[in-house]
Write a structure and sequence with these properties.
InterPro entries: GH, GH10, GH10_dom. Keywords: Carbohydrate metabolism, Glycosidase, Hydrolase, Polysaccharide degradation, Signal, Xylan degradation. One of its GO terms (biological process) is xylan catabolic process. The protein is an alpha/beta fold. It has one domain: TIM Barrel (Alpha-Beta Barrel). Helices cover about 40% and strands about 20% of the residues. The protein is built from 13 helices and eleven strands. Strand 5, helix 9 and strand 6 form a beta-alpha-beta unit. The relative contact order is 0.13. The structure holds ligand G3I. Ligand G3I binds next to loops.
Length: about 350
């Protein structure tokens, strides 16, 4: 077979996609999801706001549906995400804001959340994104001395040590799952590469303290207007040299588009070529690093891509189009796996 998953098997690499379980009702979507990928990630359905919308009442149904799909199709699951500032339940953030949830209680609630969620999926998750997006960007208002974002909800309320605790709690609940730190722009940036350096120093110190971290995920959300981050392979290798696995966890490549009906067409010809080229370069960076164990795209299609809702005028970010037909980017990845 020349599916992405079959071709990648030769390299012991899993090819993954974020999946919206609801979309599996569409047979064309479900067929691609099952045939092309050997790993799946729920895009939203394991996030705290989804699994505990009401305090004390869990709803695992959407995530369970994807886990069953993965079992039926011989796929691994990347669990996403245990500790993140975004998509927290309203009862939690409002309780912290009005003081009805104290810091000590917040810490207990987080420990319970991580413990219960990891226990619910015990034995079914290959890699967990334990902690997500803790490092400051060049535009962040409150960077700490260690490069973390001082404005982060968790850092503000519980301090930077909460990240190590999250790894310890997750490990206690499922000792066999691979535990990842996940972030964007922590590999490949040109110039000072400050965000890579901060993340590198941090995970190195976690390793030195014996915190159970197994890997680092570079999300891989790229935009053709910024140029390809050429140090990606080098930076992935640096994490690997610490004894960690690495992965590309949320690859997509956006460009400026004209939107007509349901179609997103890049506004310039060069961007149309750069889009598949950036995918090619990302996969090649992963293939060149022995410890790179998975390459996941953040939704293979474009019908419900997060990009148009977040970046005005941008789109065309996936490897399949809105009609679930493969684009040039798909054939580029396929060719990379055939030639590698
Ligand atoms: O569920 C509500 C629905 O009830 C409401 O009608 C609708 C109206 O806007 O919104 C729905 O919530 C949306 C949610 O996705 C579920 O579909 C939110 O508006 C929307 O903002 C949210 O976006 C998600 C985003 O994370 C928010 O944090 C994207 O789908 C998801 O792909 C994206 O994923 C993140 C990764 O987790 C971490 N790395 C970055 C990546 C891209 O932002």
């Amino acid at each position: 077979s020349d599916s992405l998953r079959a071709l990648a098997d030769d390299y012991n690499l899993k090819i993954g996609s974020a999946i919206i379980p609801f979309d599996l009702d569409n047979p064309a979507y479900a067929k691609v999801a099952g045939e092309q990928f050997s790993s799946v990630t729920p895009g939203n359905e394991m996030k705290w706001e989804t699994v505990e919308p009401t305090r004390g009442t869990y709803d695992w149904s959407k995530a369970d549906r994807l886990v069953s799909f993965a079992e039926a199709h011989g796929q691994q699951v990347r669990g996403h995400v245990l500790l993140w500032h975004n998509q927290l339940p309203g009862w939690l953030t409002s309780g912290v804001a009005d003081g009805s949830i104290t810091k000590a209680q917040l810490r207990d609630l987080l420990q319970k959340h991580i413990t219960d969620e990891v226990a619910h999926f015990k034995g079914k998750i290959w890699q967990w994104d334990v902690a997500n997006e803790f490092f400051a960007d060049s535009w962040s208002p409150q960077p700490l001395a260690n490069g973390m974002n001082g404005d982060d909800f968790w850092v503000k309320n519980l301090g930077t040590g909460i990240v190590a605790d999250a790894f310890r709690w997750a490990h206690a609940a499922d000792p066999k799952a691979l535990l990842f730190y996940n972030d964007y722009n922590i590999t490949g940036a040109d110039g000072t590469n400050a965000k890579f350096q901060a993340a590198y120093d941090f995970v190195k110190s976690l390793k030195e303290q014996g915190v159970p971290i197994d890997g680092v995920g570079e999300q891989g959300h790229l935009d053709t207007q910024y140029g390809f981050p050429t140090k990606m392979q080098q930076d992935l290798q640096a994490f690997a040299d610490l004894g960690l696995r690495v992965a590309i966890t949320e690859a997509d490549v956006r460009t400026f588009v004209e939107q007509t009906d349901d179609k997103q067409t890049p506004t310039d010809q060069l961007a149309m070529s750069a889009q598949p080229f950036y995918y090619d370069q990302m996969l090649k960076a992963c293939l060149a690093v022995r410890s790179c164990i998975s390459f996941t795209v953040w939704g293979f299609g474009e019908a419900d891509s997060w990009v148009p809702g977040w970046f005005t005028g941008e789109g065309y970010a996936g490897i399949y189009n809105t009609d679930v037909q493969p684009k040039t980017a798909y054939y580029t990845l396929q060719q990379d796996l055939q030639l590698a």
